[in-house]
Sequence to fold (226 residues):
Amino acid sequence: EAQVTQNPRYLITVTGKKLTVTCSQNMNHEYMSWYRQDPGLGLRQIYYSMNVEVTDKGDVPEGYKVSRKEKRNFPLILESPSPNQTSLYFCASSSTQGAVYGYTFGSGTRLTVV
Amino acid sequence: SQQGEEDPQALSIQEGENATMNCSYKTSINNLQWYRQNSGRGLVHLILIRSNEREKHSGRLRVTLDTSKKSSSLLITASRAADTASYFCARRPTDSWGKLQFGAGTQVVVTP
Fold:
């Protein structure tokens, strides 16, 4: 089944403790992206990657890092999480034809930073 | 900041009625996409309309795009209780292929 898989589904952590949220897709998509969703704000783009080793900032990149060493994986790294990063995070992917077919989203990771 | 607005923020209708929601944006776009989200779950792509298109249909969905007014609308005809969800428009700006900018969404409740 074609899908984007995020792990973990839920995560509670403490301020300052580094964490990684993984994202993997099995569709051989070139493009991957991370979003956070907060009430009343919709989805805001954190980082995106056009292909392996090519990443760029979205609208809210502060406090996050990403890497794209393999085509299928696009982990989101919070080196020193803070409570304002408590949010629902989504990973998405598309082929370079995403302009035609849209994006496939993962099921989300609900992160709480205390 | 968000690059546009969705209207209304919430919509409550009965089964069988039509639901219309609107999306406005500020910058030039390459395409505009509509997604559905069921209560905190992942987003599901519904339909994509390119900047040179004016209308598209997919089943009970009809999307229009007016680039002169920088606005789009999504119409769901003959709504069902299963259409209860949040609907988001997402804009791909012409100056950045990698960016996809979402609005705050319209929450639709369809009562039987």
In short: The interface with chain A takes residues 2, 30-31, 33, 35, 40-45, 48, 50, 88, 90, 92, 97-105 of chain B (CB under 8 Å). Residues 36 and 43 of chain B are 6 Å apart (CA to CA). DSSP finds no helices and eleven strands in chain B.
